[in-house]
Amino acid sequence: MRDFKQIARRTGRIALQVLAVAFLTSVAWVLLYRWVRPPATWLMLDRRAHAPVGLGYQGIREDNRYIQYDFKSLAEVSPELPLALVAAEDQRFLLHYGFDGDALLKAAKSNLSGTKQLRGGSTITQQVAKNVFLWQGRSYVRKAAEAYFTLLIELLWDKRRIMEMYLNVAEMGDCIFGAEAASQAYFGKPAARLSAAEAALLAGVLPNPLRFRASNPGPVARSKQRRVLRRMRALRGTEYVRELMGK
């Protein structure tokens, strides 16, 4: 009996030490990326190794799967793009602390109503958490890790850095990551020169950039673009993100 108690205490101490190391490592990792650009993300490595397979995917490269990724500061990107991303993805981005209860409730009601297309309620911060720090897949463990990293990001970064990271690591086409790579690939210009219409198109196809392409947009992509442009105007244009841009 005594041996069992000693083993239990020793196991408990080891478990606490492992948890402490994991916590400190995660905090250091998030803090590092507050100032340092990620060399790559898990999704970039996966795309480099394997071509994605899915119904309706377009522009998939079978060969030469090199990653197009060029990290730019927020000052080097047209202010139309962060505005478009807020309008398309997370209109309460400047107000919430990582989670948007209203969006989650609306998504749950929409999905429970039996609509064919599932609706997500993730904020931009949540998407940064899963894009930068987590593996691909769906599980309760991953969702818990996403919530944990979302909290860390909101505590340790400001909104400017969150947006800067998001528009640089988001997948915008097969092997194309971030605003600069997408702008060069689709419009032949740097991200600093994106127009409102081009930014709206990129943001509109962002939820599924492998099905909807900014380079050759069809009716659905154009419809998404018009919807984003309307929301951008409703948000008072780039004035809305002036705080974010630091201007």
Description:
This protein has 247 residues and is an all-alpha fold. The chain has 2 domains: 1-36; 37-51 and 65-245, Penicillin binding protein transpeptidase fold, CATH 1.10.3810. Helix content is 57%, strand content 3%. It has helices at 2-35, 42-49, 80-89, 101-112, 124-133, 140-156, 159-169, 179-187, 196-205, 219-234, 242-245; strands at 68-69, 171-173, 176-177. A 3-stranded mixed beta sheet has the order 1-3-2, with helices on one face. Helix 3 packs across helix 10 (219-234) and helix 9 packs across helix 10. The longest helix has 34 residues, at 2-35. It starts with a helix and ends with a helix. Belongs to the glycosyltransferase 51 family.
Broad structural category: mainly alpha
Helix share bin: 55-70%
State the shape: globular
Rg, nearest Å: 20 Å
Kindly provide the name of the CATH class of the largest domain: Mainly Alpha
Question: Biggest sheet: strands side by side, in what order?
Answer: 1-3-2
- Number of DSSP helices? 11
Q: Main traits of this protein?
A:
247 residues; mainly alpha; Penicillin binding protein transpeptidase fold; 2 domains; 3 strands; globular; peptidoglycan glycosyltransferase activity; Lysozyme-like_dom_sf; transferase; transmembrane helix; transmembrane
